[in-house]
Write a structure and sequence with these properties.
Blueprint lengths: L1 H25 L10 H4 L8 H12 L4 E6 L5 E7 L5 E6 L6 H4 L3 H7 L3 E5 L18 H15 L3 E7 L1 H9 L8 E7 L5 H13 L3 H16 L2 H4 L2 H8 L3 E6 L10 H5 L4 E6 L7 H4 L1 H13 L2
Parallel strand pairs: 3-4, 3-5, 5-6, 6-7, 7-8
Antiparallel strand pairs: 1-2, 2-4
Helix pairs in contact: 1-9, 6-7, 7-11, 8-9
Protein backbone atom coordinates (compact mmCIF):
# COMPACT_ATOMS: atom_id res chain seq x y z
CA UNK A 1 0.00 0.00 0.00
CA UNK A 2 2.81 2.39 0.86
CA UNK A 3 4.40 1.71 -2.53
CA UNK A 4 1.13 2.54 -4.29
CA UNK A 5 0.85 5.83 -2.41
CA UNK A 6 4.43 6.69 -3.32
CA UNK A 7 3.79 5.92 -7.00
CA UNK A 8 0.59 7.97 -6.92
CA UNK A 9 2.45 10.86 -5.32
CA UNK A 10 5.17 10.70 -7.98
CA UNK A 11 2.54 10.65 -10.71
CA UNK A 12 0.83 13.72 -9.26
CA UNK A 13 4.17 15.54 -9.04
CA UNK A 14 4.94 14.61 -12.66
CA UNK A 15 1.54 15.87 -13.82
CA UNK A 16 2.08 19.17 -12.01
CA UNK A 17 5.58 19.54 -13.49
CA UNK A 18 4.32 18.88 -17.02
CA UNK A 19 1.44 21.31 -16.56
CA UNK A 20 3.78 24.04 -15.33
CA UNK A 21 6.23 23.45 -18.20
CA UNK A 22 3.52 23.61 -20.85
CA UNK A 23 1.98 26.76 -19.36
CA UNK A 24 5.42 28.38 -19.17
CA UNK A 25 6.07 27.54 -22.82
CA UNK A 26 2.73 29.04 -23.87
CA UNK A 27 3.24 32.33 -22.05
CA UNK A 28 4.44 35.36 -23.98
CA UNK A 29 7.72 36.79 -22.74
CA UNK A 30 9.91 39.74 -23.77
CA UNK A 31 11.92 39.03 -26.90
CA UNK A 32 15.70 39.47 -26.53
CA UNK A 33 17.29 42.26 -28.54
CA UNK A 34 20.19 40.46 -30.23
CA UNK A 35 21.72 43.74 -31.38
CA UNK A 36 22.72 44.53 -27.79
CA UNK A 37 26.02 42.76 -26.90
CA UNK A 38 25.24 42.87 -23.19
CA UNK A 39 21.98 40.99 -23.80
CA UNK A 40 23.61 38.04 -25.56
CA UNK A 41 26.80 37.73 -23.56
CA UNK A 42 27.15 34.11 -22.49
CA UNK A 43 24.47 32.87 -24.91
CA UNK A 44 24.73 30.89 -28.14
CA UNK A 45 24.55 34.13 -30.13
CA UNK A 46 27.59 35.75 -28.52
CA UNK A 47 30.05 34.70 -31.23
CA UNK A 48 27.85 36.45 -33.82
CA UNK A 49 27.51 39.67 -31.83
CA UNK A 50 29.17 41.94 -34.41
CA UNK A 51 27.17 40.49 -37.30
CA UNK A 52 23.89 40.80 -35.41
CA UNK A 53 24.59 44.34 -34.27
CA UNK A 54 25.38 45.50 -37.80
CA UNK A 55 22.62 43.54 -39.50
CA UNK A 56 19.82 44.55 -37.14
CA UNK A 57 20.89 48.20 -37.31
CA UNK A 58 20.66 47.94 -41.11
CA UNK A 59 17.12 46.51 -40.91
CA UNK A 60 15.99 49.27 -38.55
CA UNK A 61 17.31 51.95 -40.89
CA UNK A 62 15.26 50.72 -43.86
CA UNK A 63 12.14 52.67 -44.96
CA UNK A 64 9.47 50.30 -43.64
CA UNK A 65 5.73 50.96 -43.79
CA UNK A 66 3.57 49.76 -40.89
CA UNK A 67 0.73 47.35 -41.70
CA UNK A 68 -2.09 46.25 -39.41
CA UNK A 69 -4.78 43.61 -39.73
CA UNK A 70 -7.24 41.77 -37.49
CA UNK A 71 -7.10 37.98 -37.23
CA UNK A 72 -9.95 35.50 -36.79
CA UNK A 73 -9.79 35.92 -32.99
CA UNK A 74 -10.14 39.71 -33.15
CA UNK A 75 -6.48 40.36 -32.27
CA UNK A 76 -4.67 43.21 -33.99
CA UNK A 77 -1.53 42.00 -35.74
CA UNK A 78 1.37 44.14 -36.89
CA UNK A 79 3.70 43.85 -39.83
CA UNK A 80 6.10 45.98 -41.86
CA UNK A 81 6.45 46.33 -45.61
CA UNK A 82 9.59 47.29 -47.48
CA UNK A 83 8.77 48.11 -51.07
CA UNK A 84 10.98 46.68 -53.79
CA UNK A 85 11.28 47.34 -57.47
CA UNK A 86 11.13 43.76 -58.71
CA UNK A 87 8.40 41.29 -59.61
CA UNK A 88 8.65 39.19 -56.45
CA UNK A 89 7.40 39.52 -52.86
CA UNK A 90 8.29 37.54 -49.75
CA UNK A 91 6.50 37.11 -46.43
CA UNK A 92 8.96 36.67 -43.54
CA UNK A 93 7.64 34.89 -40.43
CA UNK A 94 9.88 34.71 -37.34
CA UNK A 95 10.08 32.00 -34.70
CA UNK A 96 9.07 31.35 -31.11
CA UNK A 97 9.95 34.23 -28.74
CA UNK A 98 12.01 35.93 -31.41
CA UNK A 99 11.54 38.72 -33.96
CA UNK A 100 11.93 39.42 -37.64
CA UNK A 101 15.05 41.45 -36.92
CA UNK A 102 16.65 38.59 -34.99
CA UNK A 103 15.72 35.69 -37.26
CA UNK A 104 16.17 37.45 -40.62
CA UNK A 105 19.33 39.42 -39.89
CA UNK A 106 21.21 39.28 -43.20
CA UNK A 107 18.34 37.55 -45.00
CA UNK A 108 16.41 40.83 -45.32
CA UNK A 109 19.44 42.31 -47.10
CA UNK A 110 19.50 39.35 -49.48
CA UNK A 111 15.90 39.91 -50.56
CA UNK A 112 16.24 43.69 -50.68
CA UNK A 113 19.26 43.54 -52.98
CA UNK A 114 17.23 41.42 -55.42
CA UNK A 115 14.30 43.80 -55.58
CA UNK A 116 11.82 41.81 -53.47
CA UNK A 117 8.99 43.58 -51.72
CA UNK A 118 9.29 42.33 -48.14
CA UNK A 119 6.46 41.80 -45.67
CA UNK A 120 7.97 41.09 -42.23
CA UNK A 121 5.40 40.30 -39.57
CA UNK A 122 5.19 40.18 -35.78
CA UNK A 123 3.71 36.87 -34.64
CA UNK A 124 0.83 37.10 -32.16
CA UNK A 125 2.18 37.94 -28.72
CA UNK A 126 5.39 39.36 -30.21
CA UNK A 127 6.47 42.87 -31.08
CA UNK A 128 3.45 45.11 -31.62
CA UNK A 129 0.99 42.27 -32.28
CA UNK A 130 -1.63 41.45 -29.67
CA UNK A 131 -1.91 38.09 -27.94
CA UNK A 132 -0.99 36.45 -24.64
CA UNK A 133 -0.64 32.80 -25.55
CA UNK A 134 1.66 30.96 -27.96
CA UNK A 135 0.70 27.65 -29.54
CA UNK A 136 3.74 26.74 -31.67
CA UNK A 137 1.78 27.18 -34.91
CA UNK A 138 -1.50 25.44 -34.03
CA UNK A 139 -3.43 28.72 -33.82
CA UNK A 140 -0.80 30.92 -35.42
CA UNK A 141 -1.56 29.23 -38.73
CA UNK A 142 -4.83 31.14 -38.89
CA UNK A 143 -2.85 34.38 -38.53
CA UNK A 144 -0.71 33.26 -41.48
CA UNK A 145 -3.85 32.79 -43.56
CA UNK A 146 -4.70 36.45 -42.89
CA UNK A 147 -1.17 37.59 -43.79
CA UNK A 148 -1.02 35.45 -46.94
CA UNK A 149 -4.38 36.82 -48.10
CA UNK A 150 -3.23 40.38 -47.35
CA UNK A 151 -0.01 39.85 -49.28
CA UNK A 152 -1.83 38.33 -52.24
CA UNK A 153 -4.16 41.34 -52.41
CA UNK A 154 -1.66 44.13 -51.74
CA UNK A 155 1.75 43.04 -53.00
CA UNK A 156 2.72 42.74 -56.63
CA UNK A 157 4.37 39.78 -58.36
CA UNK A 158 4.86 36.16 -57.34
CA UNK A 159 4.66 35.44 -53.64
CA UNK A 160 7.26 33.51 -51.65
CA UNK A 161 7.01 32.49 -47.99
CA UNK A 162 10.04 32.27 -45.69
CA UNK A 163 9.74 31.18 -42.08
CA UNK A 164 12.05 30.22 -39.23
CA UNK A 165 11.12 27.52 -36.67
CA UNK A 166 7.59 28.27 -35.40
CA UNK A 167 7.27 30.86 -38.16
CA UNK A 168 7.94 28.21 -40.80
CA UNK A 169 5.57 25.73 -39.17
CA UNK A 170 2.80 28.38 -39.01
CA UNK A 171 3.19 29.04 -42.73
CA UNK A 172 3.26 25.37 -43.70
CA UNK A 173 0.18 24.58 -41.62
CA UNK A 174 -1.64 27.49 -43.28
CA UNK A 175 -1.06 26.28 -46.85
CA UNK A 176 -4.13 24.00 -47.14
CA UNK A 177 -6.28 26.81 -45.73
CA UNK A 178 -5.54 29.23 -48.59
CA UNK A 179 -5.46 27.09 -51.75
CA UNK A 180 -6.16 30.01 -54.10
CA UNK A 181 -3.23 32.16 -52.96
CA UNK A 182 -0.54 32.61 -55.66
CA UNK A 183 2.29 31.12 -53.60
CA UNK A 184 5.39 30.28 -55.63
CA UNK A 185 7.28 28.40 -52.91
CA UNK A 186 8.15 28.12 -49.21
CA UNK A 187 11.53 28.30 -47.47
CA UNK A 188 11.26 26.54 -44.09
CA UNK A 189 14.28 27.11 -41.84
CA UNK A 190 14.78 24.97 -38.69
CA UNK A 191 11.32 23.46 -38.98
CA UNK A 192 9.58 20.87 -36.80
CA UNK A 193 6.62 18.71 -37.77
CA UNK A 194 4.20 18.09 -34.90
CA UNK A 195 3.80 20.19 -31.74
CA UNK A 196 2.98 17.23 -29.49
CA UNK A 197 6.11 15.36 -30.55
CA UNK A 198 8.18 18.52 -30.10
CA UNK A 199 7.03 19.08 -26.50
CA UNK A 200 7.61 15.43 -25.57
CA UNK A 201 11.11 15.61 -27.06
CA UNK A 202 11.84 18.85 -25.20
CA UNK A 203 10.64 17.39 -21.89
CA UNK A 204 13.15 14.58 -22.28
CA UNK A 205 16.04 16.63 -23.65
CA UNK A 206 15.82 19.63 -21.34
CA UNK A 207 14.35 18.18 -18.17
CA UNK A 208 15.12 14.44 -18.49
CA UNK A 209 11.49 13.51 -17.93
CA UNK A 210 10.50 9.94 -18.95
CA UNK A 211 8.47 9.47 -22.12
CA UNK A 212 5.91 7.53 -20.12
CA UNK A 213 3.70 8.96 -18.74
CA UNK A 214 4.88 12.38 -20.02
CA UNK A 215 3.54 11.68 -23.52
CA UNK A 216 0.06 10.93 -22.18
CA UNK A 217 0.07 13.96 -19.89
CA UNK A 218 1.30 16.30 -22.64
CA UNK A 219 -1.36 14.95 -25.01
CA UNK A 220 -4.17 15.59 -22.54
CA UNK A 221 -2.97 19.05 -21.52
CA UNK A 222 -2.20 20.06 -25.11
CA UNK A 223 -5.70 19.12 -26.25
CA UNK A 224 -7.23 21.10 -23.39
CA UNK A 225 -5.09 24.20 -24.03
CA UNK A 226 -4.79 24.16 -27.84
CA UNK A 227 -7.62 21.97 -29.08
CA UNK A 228 -7.71 18.63 -30.88
CA UNK A 229 -5.48 19.91 -33.70
CA UNK A 230 -2.59 19.82 -31.22
CA UNK A 231 -2.30 16.06 -31.78
CA UNK A 232 -3.24 15.52 -35.40
CA UNK A 233 -1.73 18.59 -37.09
CA UNK A 234 1.51 17.83 -38.95
CA UNK A 235 3.33 20.53 -40.93
CA UNK A 236 4.71 17.91 -43.35
CA UNK A 237 1.23 16.63 -44.21
CA UNK A 238 0.01 20.19 -44.76
CA UNK A 239 2.94 20.84 -47.11
CA UNK A 240 2.25 17.68 -49.11
CA UNK A 241 -1.49 18.41 -49.30
CA UNK A 242 -0.82 21.89 -50.68
CA UNK A 243 1.39 20.68 -53.52
CA UNK A 244 3.52 23.83 -53.14
CA UNK A 245 7.31 23.32 -53.41
CA UNK A 246 9.12 23.53 -50.06
CA UNK A 247 12.84 24.01 -49.44
CA UNK A 248 13.93 22.97 -45.94
CA UNK A 249 17.08 24.43 -44.40
CA UNK A 250 18.42 22.63 -41.32
CA UNK A 251 21.58 22.92 -39.24
CA UNK A 252 23.58 19.77 -38.57
CA UNK A 253 24.13 20.87 -34.95
CA UNK A 254 20.49 21.75 -34.24
CA UNK A 255 19.17 20.14 -31.05
CA UNK A 256 16.10 22.25 -30.26
CA UNK A 257 13.87 20.05 -32.42
CA UNK A 258 14.18 16.30 -33.10
CA UNK A 259 16.78 15.94 -35.91
CA UNK A 260 14.69 13.23 -37.56
CA UNK A 261 11.73 15.56 -38.18
CA UNK A 262 13.18 16.79 -41.49
CA UNK A 263 12.69 13.29 -42.92
CA UNK A 264 8.93 13.69 -42.46
CA UNK A 265 9.01 16.41 -45.10
CA UNK A 266 11.37 14.94 -47.66
CA UNK A 267 9.13 11.91 -48.07
CA UNK A 268 6.94 14.21 -50.14
CA UNK A 269 7.92 14.89 -53.76
CA UNK A 270 7.57 18.65 -53.35
CA UNK A 271 10.16 19.04 -50.55
CA UNK A 272 13.96 19.09 -50.51
CA UNK A 273 16.29 19.61 -47.57
CA UNK A 274 19.58 21.51 -47.42
CA UNK A 275 21.82 20.95 -44.40
CA UNK A 276 24.11 23.73 -43.17
CA UNK A 277 27.23 22.16 -41.69
CA UNK A 278 27.65 23.21 -38.07
CA UNK A 279 24.44 25.24 -38.07
CA UNK A 280 22.33 25.41 -34.92
CA UNK A 281 18.60 25.91 -34.57
CA UNK A 282 17.47 29.17 -36.24
CA UNK A 283 21.12 30.18 -36.76
CA UNK A 284 21.89 28.68 -40.16
CA UNK A 285 22.39 32.03 -41.93
CA UNK A 286 24.71 33.24 -39.17
CA UNK A 287 26.79 30.07 -39.44
CA UNK A 288 27.17 30.08 -43.22
CA UNK A 289 25.65 32.99 -45.18
CA UNK A 290 27.21 31.78 -48.43
CA UNK A 291 25.75 28.28 -48.18
CA UNK A 292 22.36 29.70 -47.21
CA UNK A 293 22.43 32.20 -50.07
CA UNK A 294 23.40 29.46 -52.51
CA UNK A 295 20.42 27.40 -51.39
CA UNK A 296 18.09 30.37 -51.95
CA UNK A 297 19.59 31.19 -55.35
CA UNK A 298 19.10 27.64 -56.59
CA UNK A 299 15.57 27.39 -55.23
CA UNK A 300 14.27 30.79 -56.33
CA UNK A 301 16.21 31.37 -59.54
CA UNK A 302 17.27 27.85 -60.49
CA UNK A 303 20.97 28.68 -60.52
Amino acid sequence: MIVLWILLGLLIVLIVICAVLILMNLRCRPVPDLSAPEKIRGTRWESYSDVLQKGIASIRAMPWEDVWLTNHSGQHLHGRVLRGGGDKAVLLSHGYRSSGENDFCGIVEYYRERGFTILMIDQRGHGQSEGRQLTFGVRERWDMVCWICWAAENLQGELWLHGVSMGAVSLLMALPLCPDAPIRGVIADSVYDNVRELLIYQAGRKYRLPKFPVAQIVTLEGRLLMGKDFVKLHASQCAVASGIPVRLICGTQARTVPPCMATSFVRGKNAQCIFIDGGRHAMCWLKSPKAYEKALEYYIYGK
